[in-house]
User: Fold this.
Amino acid sequence: MKLTFLGTGTSTGIPVLGCDCEVCRSGDARDRRLRCSSLITTREGKNILIDCGPDVRAQLLRHNVRSIDAVLITHSHYDHVGGLDDLRTLSYARPVDIFCTEDVAADIRRLMPYCFSGSNYPNIPKLQLQIIKPYKSFKAGGIVFEPLTVIHGKLPIVGFRFGKAAYITDASLVPQSTIDGLYGLDVLILNVLRVRSNPTHMNLEEALGVIESVSPRHTYLIHMSHQMGLHSEASLRLPPGVDFAYDNLILSIDG
Ligand SMILES: [Zn+2]
Ligand SMILES: [Zn+2]
Ligand SMILES: [Zn+2]
Assistant:
């Protein structure tokens, strides 16, 4: 299967509105980061979205995505769910399954009450909330996913393991119960914000600590702030086998 990084930036995106720093002014396409989201395309051609932030419309247009079979949601912060309404035109033929934990489902119902009121008002997105539980595997788009709990500040949220790959975003702490589920990975996708510490997201040292304890073959870092520095310069700080992902990077992943 194939994984496309649709967005690799933190909640502000990069460039940050109103910022004149060298990263936000950079001409390097790898320094332009939309809000975090990835698209998994299976061999059978199913499209599974991980998170659906406010940039999703531009992201799906950019990659000419014509259908979405499932959306997996890590947590309900706006930069991860703010684009759900834009799936409306892809949901007319068949409702789109949204896989999320119970608390996230409650937030989505609050955020978009018009989708769940039972009214037949035309043109509302048809979203089917599918409740998942941490460490209980489920199937979406023909792929088996295991939700893994990570801590985001004080909030427990989920990442996803699928085969020999895993996707974790917005973690400030990866508990041992999840570390135990991350061994034997070919590809780990993991968040890092910047070098300086932050209460709700891992910094570089913390992310490298997680990578060291689970030893994936390759790690791609996501959810970076402009404070991480220029892609070309910050990359020099990374050990072998670890890279910053960038928007539109495509990986091929064994199923
Ligand atoms: Zn985020
Ligand atoms: Zn900046
Ligand atoms: Zn968040």
Remarks:
- The pocket of zinc ion (ligand 3) is lined by residues 75, 77, 152, 170 (CB under 6 Å).
- The mean pLDDT is 97.
